[in-house]
C-alpha cells in the first residue's frame, strides 16, 4: 500500500487533534483511501514545551527541517495568525505538496492567492476547517455550485459569541461573567477580542464569499459589530426573541455584494432560534434548492481536526484517481 508522508505545522489544540485522529483512525483511513498516512514531522514554536508523546516523529522548531523531510506529500497547517503561516504554505505549494489549513485569519486574506498558486502547480488545498469547525460547509457549497447558484449565506460562525449570548439568556449571567466562563471552559482565548468584536466571524464570512461568489466585497464596506456592547438587560428584555450573532453576505442580480456581521434579534420561526451554546449554524440560499441549513460544533480539538482529516481523505481520493489515470 502506498504511503503519504505528512507534516503538521503547529501543535496546539488543533494540531494535536489532527495527530490523535490520524493515529486512532489509521486503519479506517487506509480502507477509505488506499493509502497509509505517516506523520513524519511536526513543527512547534517551543521545542522545550511539554506535550504528548509522538514516537517516531521528528519534532522541530525549524521549518527548514520540515521541508527537508524526504518525499513529503502533504502539510497540515494549524498555526495562529497570518504569518508565518502564509509564507510556509506558499513555499509548501511551490514544492509540490498538497496543503490543508484551519487558519481562517490567514486564509481570509491569502486564500485566493494560495488557491491560484495550487491550481497552477496542480496541487490541492483543503480549507474546510477554516469555517465553522466540524460543520461541512465548504464541501457543501462546492457541491451545490456544480449545479446551482448561491444567492445568500447567513451564519452563526463564532461559537464563543453564541455561548456567551446563551449563558446571558438562559442563566442571567452578565456579559463579563459569561465571557469568564467561556474562558474557563477553553471556548474563549485569554484575549477574546476577535471573537467578541465580530472579526473572527467576519473572516469566515469572507472565506465563504470567495467560495460561493468567486470574490469578496471591499472589506471596509462591511458593517462589523460584536456582542461586547450587549447588556444583560437587553437580553432579558427581549423575552420571546433571541439574540444571535449573525454574519450575512448576499449577491444581487448585478453581481454586487453586501454583507454585515452583527447581533440580531430573531423569533421562533427563524432556523437559528434554537442554536445554543458553542454550536455554529449556516443557511445557504440557492436558486434551485432554496434554503439549506447546517448545524454542528463550531470549534475544538476534534471537530476541527476531524474536518482537516476529512479534507485529507478527499485529497487522497483525488490522488488515487490521478495514479490510476496516469
Outline the fold blueprint.
Blueprint: E1 3-9, H1 13-24, H2 26-33, E2 36-43, E3 58-60, H3 63-67, E4 74-77, H4 85-94, E5 98-101, H5 104-121, E6 125-126, H6 137-145, E7 150-156, H7 159-171, H8 175-184, H9 193-197, H10 199-213, E8 223-224, H11 232-237, E9 242-251, E10 257-266, E11 279-286, E12 291-297, H12 301-325
Parallel strand pairs: 1-2, 1-4, 2-3, 4-5, 5-6, 8-10
Antiparallel strand pairs: 7-9, 7-11, 9-10, 11-12
In short:
The chain is α/β, with parallel strands linked by helices and 326 residues long. 42% of the residues lie in helices and 22% in strands.
Question: Could you characterize the architecture of this molecule?
Answer:
With 326 residues, this protein is α/β, with parallel strands linked by helices. It has 2 domains: 3-133 and 302-325, 3-Layer(aba) Sandwich (Rossmann fold), CATH 3.40.50.720; 137-298, Dihydrodipicolinate Reductase, domain 2, CATH 3.30.360. The protein is built from 12 helices and 12 strands. The chain has helices at 13-24, 26-33, 63-67, 85-94, 104-121, 137-145, 159-171, 175-184, 193-197, 199-213, 232-237, 301-325, and strands spanning 3-9, 36-43, 58-60, 74-77, 98-101, 125-126, 150-156, 223-224, 242-251, 257-266, 279-286, 291-297. The strands form 2 sheets. Strands 3-2-1-4-5-6 form a 6-stranded parallel sheet, with helices on both faces. Strands 8-10-9-7-11-12 form a 6-stranded mixed sheet. Strand 9 (242-251) and strand 10 form a beta hairpin. Helix 5 packs parallel to helix 10 (199-213) and helix 7 (159-171) crosses helix 8. The mean pLDDT is 94. InterPro entries: Asp/hSer_DH_NAD-bd, HDH_cat, HDH_CS, HDH_short, NAD(P)-bd_dom_sf. The active site is at 204 (proton donor). It is an enzyme of class 1 (oxidoreductase).
Amino acid at each position: 500500500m502506498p504511503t503519504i508522508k505528512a507534516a503538521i505545522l503547529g501543535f496546539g489544540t488543533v494540531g494535536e487533534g489532527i495527530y490523535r485522529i490520524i493515529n486512532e483512525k489509521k486503519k479506517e483511513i487506509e480502507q477509505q483511501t488506499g493509502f497509509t498516512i505517516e506523520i513524519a514531522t511536526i513543527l512547534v514554536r517551543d521545542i522545550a514545551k511539554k506535550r504528548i508523546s509522538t514516537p517516531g516523529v521528528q519534532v522541530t522548531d525549524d521549518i527548514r527541517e520540515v521541508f527537508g523531510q524526504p518525499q513529503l506529500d502533504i502539510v497540515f497547517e494549524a498555526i495562529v495568525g497570518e504569518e508565518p503561516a502564509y509564507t510556509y504554505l506558499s513555499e509548501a505549494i511551490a514544492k509540490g505538496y498538497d496543503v490543508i489549513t484551519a487558519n481562517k485569519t490567514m486564509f481570509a486574506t491569502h486564500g485566493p492567492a494560495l488557491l491560484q498558486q495550487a491550481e497552477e502547480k496542480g496541487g490541492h488545498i483543503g480549507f474546510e476547517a477554516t469555517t465553522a469547525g466540524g460543520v461541512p460547509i465548504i464541501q457543501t457549497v462546492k457541491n451545490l455550485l456544480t449545479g446551482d447558484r448561491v444567492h445568500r449565506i447567513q451564519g452563526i460562525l463564532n461559537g464563543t459569541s453564541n455561548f456567551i449570548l446563551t449563558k446571558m439568556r438562559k442563566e442571567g449571567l452578565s456579559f463579563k461573567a459569561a465571557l469568564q466562563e467561556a474562558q474557563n471552559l477553553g471556548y474563549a482565548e485569554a484575549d477574546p477580542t476577535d471573537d467578541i468584536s465580530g472579526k473572527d466571524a467576519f473572516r469566515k464570512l469572507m472565506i465563504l464569499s470567495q467560495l460561493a461568489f468567486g470574490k469578496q466585497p471591499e472589506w471596509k464596506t462591511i458593517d462589523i459589530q460584536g456582542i461586547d456592547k450587549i447588556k444583560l438587560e437587553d437580553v432579558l428584555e427581549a423575552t420571546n426573541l433571541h439574540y444571535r450573532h449573525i454574519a450575512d453576505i448576499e449577491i444581487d442580480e448585478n453581481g454586487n455584494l453586501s454583507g454585515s456581521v452583527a447581533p440580531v434579534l430573531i423569533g421562533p420561526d427563524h432556523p437559528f432560534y434554537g442554536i445554543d451554546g458553542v454550536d455554529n449554524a449556516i443557511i445557504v440560499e440557492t436558486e434551485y434548492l432554496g434554503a439549506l441549513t447546517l448545524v454542528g460544533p463550531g470549534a475544538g480539538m476534534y471537530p476541527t481536526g476531524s474536518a482537516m482529516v476529512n479534507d485529507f481523505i478527499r485529497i487522497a481520493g483525488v490522488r488515487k484517481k490521478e495514479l490510476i489515470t496516469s
